[in-house]
Amino acid sequence: MVGAKVITVKVTRRFRTSAAFAANEAAAGLGIAQAPLWQVRALLDQGRIELVLTCFETPPPPLQEVWPATRPPAAKTQMFVDFLAARLKGERL
Question: Domain tally for the chain?
């Protein structure tokens, strides 16, 4: 059901592969697939696929920075972490 509209999709056969690229390309032309958003972002941006069942997405995992407790991080490392945190703040991963 999409909004208040019921959509029926006839499934004729299965497609199996162990290659992510092949699965994503097949989804663009053959049907539904499950993949991480970062992996199919280009297909989504090109309009070749669309997101479905988004209400069932799992929450994104937290990102953590880790370095030895014996010394503080180098200035360039801290700058990179700060940049990354600002860049990813509103992103869907």
Answer: 1
Does residue 70 belong to any structural domain of this protein? yes
- Contact partners, residue 44, CB within 8 Å, separation at least 6: 37, 50, 51
> Does some domain include residue 27?
yes
Encoded tokens for 19: 């290659």
Q: Is residue 7 part of a domain?
A: no
pLDDT grade for 88, boundaries at 50, 70 and 90:
confident
Contacts of residue 72, Cβ cutoff 8 Å, sequence gap at least 6: 78
2: confidence class by pLDDT, cuts 50, 70, 90: low
Judged on CB neighbours under 10 Å (0-12, 13-18, 19+), 55 is exposed
Indicate the pTM of the whole model.
Answer: 0.56
Q: Which domain holds residue 32?
A: 20-88
